[in-house]
Amino acid sequence: MTEQDGQDAGVADEVVHEFGALLGAASVLERIAGRELERRCGIRHAVFEVLLRLSHDGPRSMGGLAGELILTSGGMTRIIDRMEEAGLVRREPAPGDRRRQLVELTQAGRAKLDEALRVHAETLREHFAGPLTARQRRVLVDALRTLRASAREELGDLH
Questions:
Q1: pLDDT of the residue at 159
Q2: What pTM did the predictor assign?
């Protein structure tokens, strides 16, 4: 092994550890956020994501939601079934295509989202923003935006 090979291996090992630190931090922060949503609001993180999407984009197709949340159609159906039973959403046949179902928020869904957003913001202030200075957060967010833009450029239409 040459000296250059040893240097390349050291750099590769460092990059792998750095990426692991990023994924590890994101994973535990997501678990904390999910735990708090369940404990304090009685909803799972996936339900929160559906509520958020519906609040921004209005009624959506089940397939569109499943694609955005990277769920199977069966998994999406189970989530929507539970949300409908809880009164958070309602399903309507899509205009012009009764085979497709559109999902929309109910008043109870909007109220649950408002509650969950308050809890989520409190959790993130404590566990994401709290340990970092304002400058550290700005640097981190700028770096993450750069990574996201670069990755999206690489993926192109594959998303």
A1: 47
A2: 0.80
